[in-house]
Amino acid sequence: MLSFIGRRILIAIPTILLISVFVFVLQKLLPGDPVLALAGEDRNPEILAFLREKYRLNDPLYVQYFHWIGNALQGDLGISLRTQQPVLTLIGQKLPVTIQLAVMALIIAVVIGVPAGIISAYKKGTWIDWLANIVALSGLSVPNFWLGIMMILLVSVKLGWLPASGYQPLMDDPLQSIKVMLMPAFVLGTGLAATLMRHTRSAMLGVLKSDYVRTARAKGLGEMSVVVKHALRNALVPIVTVVTLLFGELLAGAVLTEQIFTIPGFGKLIVDAVFNRDYAVVQGIVLCTAIAFIAMNILADALYRVLNPRMRNS
Amino acid sequence: MSFKRTLALTAALLLGATWAQAADLKIGLAEDPDVLDPDQSRTFVGRIVYASLCDKLVDITPGLEIVPMLATAWTWSEDGKTLTMDLREGVTFHDGEPFNAEAVAFNINRSQTLEESRRKSEVASIASTKVVDDNTIEITLANPDATLIAQFADRAGMMVSPKAAAAAGADFGNAPVCSGPFMFKERVQQDRIVLEKFPGYWNADAINFDSVTFLPITDGTVRLANVRAGDVHLIERLSATDVASVKADGSLALDQAVSLGYQGITVNVANGDRAQTPIGQDARVRRALSLAIDREVMNQVVFDGVMAAGNQPYPPTSPWYNSAIPVPARDVEAAKALLAEAGAEGVSVEIQTSTDPVGLQLLQVVQSMALEAGINVSIVAKEFATQLSEQTAGAYMTSQIGWSGRVDPDGNIHQFMTCEGGINDSKYCNPEVDDLLNGARTSNDVAERKANYDAALAILAEDMPIIYLYHQTWLWAMTTKLDGFVAYPDGMIRLQGVSLSE
Question: Does the ipTM exceed 0.85?
């Protein structure tokens, strides 16, 4: 197992390097000058020239890249052009926020999506199945920003149950932190629950038809035991894949949801950074989320091996 | 008895709790400010935070008069080259350092010499400073500069602690130390900026909050929802289209002030090849486009009539407005006649704008009005950073853009309309206008300056390198519990005298 994970990490390194080159080149291709974007109204040519020099924007592209990657390997991701805070500090500030939102959204998605998928597969063709499908489909089709604003208007403005937006660090005040994050997590989670429900349903349908499930029933096992112990366990591999992929996506930041609920996570940071041509910040976050995504993939592969012994030797 | 006592105690505790809550004022901002160093910062929104954090040498009244703040009085020498300022006694910075003439000299020097300073051009006229005594500073100028006092009413006049600034250098913005009513506590980018009351503030009696928290909430609907839900007490830059619903809400109050800035269409008249167009080369086409637009209708359709229609770099409410050139009424026939005279019937005009939906809507109104006069307007939406760089490089025909405005009229016109102006993206150049605008800088006589500006505006109304359209109105929505808020045309939020009632 350890050698498997070690091998996967080694393979991941060139992938991450490639991603960093790709993003670096791509954002340099964008029209617009970071120094000018930064300058806003005060466009004094003398200062613009000084800033271009200071942030090495006059160097050839490859020199800029090697300078950046050289520093990055030493743990220095540069500083934000806009606020002059170190990118590493920014990531340190945002990562816990994004992880909290991702975990909460995923819990909501799993709690709703997986049981709904199991039930609708088990009751295939009945009104319960139809109802679950309709709910799932609406979860997928309702845009997050709309649902977000509607929930703010209903839950915060009308009912006054939860704060409309903002963020409270988990360590400072756990209860308040969870309260503030509940609505955005719900908005994100319901969308994901729909995806999860569809995958769970189709995986369960396949398994429920298989011979060993019929055998289990023939042995006289209770339905609960058949469905949960025998069928679900075998249906879990595709579900785990989906869950880890979803988690990886969530770590890259939920741009619209963060924007609506004013959550200071990765999504908002990277969108602002792209608009301001804040290259160092974009690079830093992309690097960070690429690593997170690859880590999630490795985790998924490792989990398959735990769930399905036949995969251990492959 | 004991029950009554419990009841009284509970009531007292409850009261205490609400009172304690009220001591933190929460303000919703439309954007996240940039670096919090008065010498380096660039954004409008950053200045809103400074209004609570950093006192200035002078301040303005809502009517744009300059009034004392850290400087209590000032006099100009006969030749307009020496400014002597008396400084307020007993003022300290947040780190306990004294505010005195030495500190003012340090601050002016920092604005001029810090490499990252964005204030250089604002204090460029200052040749030297002399500390007369602890509370008197003498500022000598290389040439007379009537705009200097107004610069001191903004970021160039914000005084930072010399000790803290010297220690932090260009990183000062991470933990700014000034002398305003509140001191910096913490900042989480894109989440919050927290300031807490400075007990040693010279005007502490006017401050009624223990702390103030600025929350950047970029989405306008969500910003409004926050003040409705009571999560923030005050929001800035309410959308014009939300004014009606705020007025209808009994728990909310609205305040507004016409800004110092303008919005208009900048025409490329001499900035590279793209200036070689009918509208770039013939002022008659520009005047025709201006005449084709009904600015009042535009204001009604796009902004529910909340903005102020305009035709000059400062609004009709400004004391500097040239009333001999009023906002023109729409005149399609006159526009057609001008186009015929210029031989430009059916002319095509491309206007670039940012991707902001309100900006697009505005130009769609312009587009349909212009079409009736025989001008084919096409709209090109570009993301703001792109729009800005293309405009600077001259890669545009016309561009819808604005200016947030300055207290002194010079700030709204000189850098745009003089041949060597730093932000003259249309590259308009007229020596006569240069003379008038440069002349207005050197006189401290208001009437003389006004005459210069009036004359320059008369020429600009003919040449029209910028077609001014309207002036933004700053809109604030707040809980009705907030008392004492005063709307200023600079869009700032001054907390002196503001309080929360229960």
Answer: no
